[in-house]
Amino acid sequence: MTWPPDENIEAEVQPWLSVPRQHPVRLIVLHSTRGPTSEDLQYQATRNWMQSLGNVGDRDSEGKPIWGSATNRIIGHDGQMCVAVPDDRYCTYGAGFGDVGSWAVDWYAINIELAQATVDQPFTDATLERCAQVCADLCRQYSIPAVWLDDVDQTAGPVPSGITSHELTDNGTRLRKTDVGKMFPIEAFMDRVKDHIIVQDK
């Protein structure tokens, strides 16, 4: 399967959306874009939001932005991928904290936004296949086991390692997140990831 050319907008992303990574990559966290537009425009809309001056979650006492919603990668309905925040930086808010005093998922995660317009819309095969390939690459690169985590406890240690979704983290539970949601075929997707790893290891 082939996809449109990949993009890299690291230099264009607002500077408060990421900081240098200080912890090892241990998690891959999947999200759904679900912007107020059609499926085919989800990729571009998310890409634009990463570059927007309006993407500000909070400001410091001097009025300077200190965080906003961000992601490391975006995968479109046609499988096109955009790198927004490089792996050596983590998002100031992708999946975030659980309860007060817990560790932040973003410290350890590569966040990936997948094109989906609504919670009831199936993901395209191109999105799933490209995401599986990317996850396989990340698993090999960062020695992440190709396992699906049904629960990410952000209060206990050690930090788990694997693939999960925002809704399955403590942060996602607390904020009632629904991504990647019921339309994401976990078992079939993980089979794809493992198949890609097998092919890569040959």
Rg, Cα atoms, Å: 16 Å
Spatial separation of the terminal alpha carbons: 19 Å
Tally the helices.
4
Shape: globular
Strand runs, count: 10
Strand numbers in spatial order across the main sheet: 1-7-6-9-3-10
Give the helices and strands as they follow along the chain: EEEHEEEEEEHEHH
In terms of per-residue confidence, which ranges show pLDDT below 50 for 5 or more consecutive residues?
Answer: none
- Mean pLDDT equals 95
Work out the helicity level.
10-25%
Structural class: alpha/beta
Largest sheet: 6 strands, mixed
Strand content: 15-25%
Q: What's the short story on this structure?
A:
This protein is an alpha/beta fold and 202 residues long. The protein is built from four helices and ten strands. A six-stranded mixed sheet has the order 1-7-6-9-3-10, with helices on both faces. A two-stranded antiparallel sheet has the order 2-8. It has a two-stranded antiparallel ribbon with strand order 4-5.
